[in-house]
Amino acid sequence: MTSTPNGNVAAEVTDQSASSELQSALDNYNQLSPRQIAWRRLKKNKVALASGIVALFFLILAYGAPLFAGIFHVDPNSRFPDAIDGTGLVKGSFNGMGLHHPFGFEPGTGRDLFALLVYGSRISFTIAIITSVAFAAVGSIFAVIAALYGGKIDNFFGRLADFLLAFPFTFFVIALSVPLTKSIESTGIAQNNGARMIMLVLLLVIFSWSGFFRVVRSQVLTLREKEFVMAAHALGAGNRRIIFKEILPNLYPLIIIYLSISLPGYLTAEATFSFLGIGIQAPASTWGLTLDDAVNYWQRDPVYLLIPTLMLIIVVLALNLFGDGLRDALDTKSDR
Amino acid sequence: MSDKVLEVKDLKMHFAPRSTIFSKSNAPVKAVDGVSFHINRGETVGLVGESGCGKTTVGRTVMRLYNPTSGEIIFDDQDISQLKGNELKGIRSKIQLIFQDPYSSLNPRHTVGKIIEASFEIHKINPAGGRTAAVKELLAKVGLNPEHINRFPHEFSGGQRQRIGIARALALQPKLIVCDEPVSALDVSIQAQVVNLLDDLQSEFNLAYLFIAHDLSVVQHISDRVVVMYLGKIMEIATTKDLFAKPMHPYTKALLSAVPIPDPEIERKRERIVLQGDLPSPANPPSGCVFSTRCWKATEKCRTEVPELITLGVGNPNERSYACHFPEN
Description:
The structure holds two protein chains of two kinds. Chain A is mainly α. Chain A has helices spanning 3-30, 34-44, 46-63, 65-71, 113-149, 151-165, 169-187, 192-224, 227-234, 239-276, 287-295, 302-330. Chain A is built from twelve helices and no strands.
């Protein structure tokens, strides 16, 4: 009889400590902020996480271009005439790939392809990032103004958005690229490719904010009618507090998702316009320009076309998958 | 200071539909059309009526979330119906609101502490002992664990969220709280807890409640007096006891007959009044008595002549009012 109570006590003690451990684990989980919960969900999504790492790798490659090109002692401007034969083609198979020239050479000029692509991606990424941020900022600022003030202001922005959405975008970019670049150059802000970059960003933002505007506007209209906004009114909160403290924090997930989803789109847009010859021009390089050049050689030197194509596909796919994962992680509707 | 914390006189709240270039402005929606009642200090007045009769609009207009079309809202001997800017902000701290839906009434991206502290921030109040301590005290008051101050709304159940909403409403020590269907989104067992909490807080802080609900049994439990509305107008006002015992307005009678009685014997035998038809459009209300289209007692007089709100026993605690040409009892 004496041993049984002791045994029971011991069992009870372990039981208690186990349950308190469980409780503290639960408490830990319960005290997560929405951001921490999103991060947890993202971590569970291996595809999105891997895609994020790939995208980050390319981003680092782009902005650390001199560093990485330096590893192979190459830069985008020096030519290697020895690598080119008399007809302008690269000597040897696989575009002349080798230890010192991992991607081989650019036919014709004999520049190092790895250096061209990493330096080129810097321009592509810069345009894509600036455009995404500007488009998200313009779209959401207009949307918040339109939704909160309503009436004529809402109508004005709404019709403007409709008008821009109805525009034949590609046609106008082609038509406007030259005069717009000229007028940017004449203001003296930037010349040549600098002016062309500004032109591309401007045109992309002007013609694409309207799509995002519609999404954010409808979201703000929903939020505006939520009872917590009315509660803030009832407490005597002013417009500024309601916009910045009550409504904006609920828009951040949407904005982040749109940023990550639109980024690869602008990356391809830049490549497309450079490919069409209305974006950045040689001797600078971007992925679009390299692709444009590679099309001329696709039968004789398919590897030259394959490398930038693959890079573009990998980056765009990675960014899209990451954006998708981010949306799943930030979506409050799938809350526990 | 009079006994009345709030007196509403002939309050009208009409919503004009927006006119566009394609259609001229239609008739305004008369959500609240000439409503008068009062609430004494520390009293609970129930406001009942079917969906779309203007209960919520009365609550929100009294709160000055809307700008009333006409009429007076006298709060603490001051007409607040036309106040603006800082004067209005001053009144805001004295009248607070508890919402129906505890899921949309708390900002999902703010912690509980931040939600309740907002009241202090907006009115630049620094309670003795600091804001955090004050928030914790409020959480304890409404029966929540003060340690949960850093949690987010999604971590709480519906009943707990409603308690957070109540704590927010209490933060500025209001005199009047408009409860807009505070329990209709909750489970029945939780409803009882929240109603009892409201009861306790009332006696502790001498609060007056305007308790908007469509659940008559809850109203019967919590209210001292009841106001019955139909299509933007008041049909009847009486003490809870009188109203439930002998309703004078046919509409009240119909409403009460819809409340189930938890006794199958009585339930089977009793006669129920089932109203025919739908609530008419508040943009185009019937002439005469608004209830005449669905009233079984309606005569020609009802269809042409608007019944005045008649008050019996003015000033006496059992004072009651009705708006009917042919009252019951």
